[in-house]
Amino acid sequence: MSNPKANTNNEQVNRKMSMQEYKMIREEDEGCLRKYRKHCMQEMHEYLSFGPRFNSIIELEDGEAFLDTIEKEHHLTLVIVHIYDDGIQGCEALNKCLTCLADEYSTVKFCRIRVSATGAEEQFPKDVLPTLLVYKAGEMLANFICITKNLNEEFFATDVENFLNEYGLLPAKELAPCPEGDKELGVE
């Protein structure tokens, strides 16, 4: 009882792969690996880029909004609050600088509140303005009273950014998402 087709099946199993077949399988494997790497990089980027995006400076209307912003924000979100008043040297310039930084650091919540709206005007006389307060998870990390004394007379967003980075307060700038055509990136 022998099967005449049994020998041909064994021959197909035992035959060697041609170079063309090998190259085709290898290219297919490399393509799958490339897709897998891209998927992993996107997942990692999404994981590290958690949370809300702000992209602008938020005006706080009163002391209650100030407390809510500090206490109710996500525990990993950095909150930077500028206490200012009109007509105080440096306040307007600092507002402009923080507006620029809000665009660059979209995961940082930049806020400002007029000193008269805080409900604590006696704690912030005009000679301590502009004041910058930095919070994370409801805890104060830094308090810069009359921050303009630490900057040049004429300062810009990069000066404020460098100042905050000296204290390790700003997160690393965000990376751009992976380009679609990343075949030639050389990532192995």
Automatic annotation (TrEMBL):
Q: Where is the Phosducin domain?
A: 8-175
Q: Where in the cell is it found?
A: Cell projection, Cilium, Photoreceptor outer segment; Cytoplasm, Cytosol; Nucleus; Photoreceptor inner segment
CDD domains membership: Phd_like_Phd
The UniProt keywords, alphabetically, are: Cell projection, Cilium, Cytoplasm, Nucleus, Phosphoprotein, Sensory transduction, Vision
Q: GO CC annotation: what is one?
A: nucleus
Q: Does the keyword Kinase apply?
A: no
The source's domain of life comes to Eukaryota
One Pfam family it belongs to = Phosducin
**Single Gene Ontology BP annotation:** visual perception
Q: Output the InterPro entries linked to this UniProt entry.
A: Phosducin (IPR001200), Phosducin-like_reg (IPR051499), Phosducin_N_dom_sf (IPR023196), Phosducin_thioredoxin-like_dom (IPR024253), Thioredoxin-like_sf (IPR036249)
What family does the database annotate?
A: Belongs to the phosducin family.
Q: What is this protein called?
A: Phosducin
Record organism: Electrophorus voltai
Name the lineage.
Eukaryota, Metazoa, Chordata, Craniata, Vertebrata
